[in-house]
Amino acid sequence: MDDTSPVAQPHRMDPAGGCPHAANARLLARGSVTSVVLPGGVEGAAVLGHDALREFLAHAEVAKDARHFTALRDGRIAPGWPLRTFATVRGMTTADGDDHRRLRSLVSKAFTARRVEELRPWIEELTARLLDDLAEAAEADGGVADLRRHFAMPLPMGVIGELFGVDAEHRDTLHRLSNQVVATDIAPEEAIAANRDLLALLGAIAAARAERPGDDLTSALIAARDEGGDRLSHEELIGTLVLMIVAGHETTLNLITNAVRALCGHRDQLELVRDAKASWADVVEETLRWDAPVSYFPFRYPVRDLTVGGVLIPKGTPVLAGYSAAGRDPAAHGPDADRFDITRPVRPDAVRHLSLGHGAHYCLGAPLARLEAGIALERLFARFPDLELAVPEAGLARHASFVGNSVRALPVRL
User: Which stretch of DSSP H or E encloses residue 338?
Assistant: First the structure.
């Protein structure tokens, strides 16, 4: 399909993922909303423009519950469809109204700004240990180490593992299964196996916490479940763990990785921070805008035929939230929207970005992700001020997914 055609042809989402920005620019030139073809030939839509996405994310007639997904309800979605878990997992990301508020309230107190700030000393200590590990890995391999493997992944996985009482021995397996669950080019039998294995492992973790409760969120969720099924069912318990553990580390992992790539490619921006002309928080926010850790997030469903950005989206259509496209929308961010600029002014009538969501489903872990990324970047470049990519940016292999937006590995020279 020719994306530059003025005819509004459906955009076929590439299951292999890759860098989204060139395709996003072509689609945005056509409009803020586009019809798409999802893996397996499933018809859907994507909201790309910043203002249209902000409206859509908070719209009262847009649902998250998959009972509104027409093709799924009609039995036209195969069991091994790679995006099925996003629709069918039982948890706050697939709940609306009172159910959503009930599920969110069970974990929200652990992610308030005050509670998160109390984690700062522990996160700083973990960061220091991981920087030692990164240095050792580089020393063992000629001065080059995979920053994603040795630093950007174990930091958020360590934090979320500590919060939810996940033993260290399970964390690598959880990360591997998470990668498979969010992959969009995975074969049906592999998708089914990955979901089965992930649910089995989380079930085993929950069972262990039930036998030996601790001061962690999994134990608290189990207590809520056991107080009565009206507070939390077993399926919702496991679904909440899927969401919090998968999203709780993958998003921050991509954020840290993308920020390091951005700073290595824009040394002038790094110097602004070093000269106190900008902050590490500015780096985090501009990275979220410029290279969102999640590119297209599944799914929302109009509960009636809905016009967004001048485009009719039929009732029951699975809609992707195009965070990476909205972040570089020239209509919201100006003609230089594709430029990484940590001093970029924010439009008075807009938010800086939508990469952590908007409305009732705004990312619960946003304060934690911001804190982790800020500490990680500050300590990393203080310890290794001359850090640089060990391979050209163009040579970095991308995720095999149009959901997550980052690279598979980040070799750096310390």
Answer: none
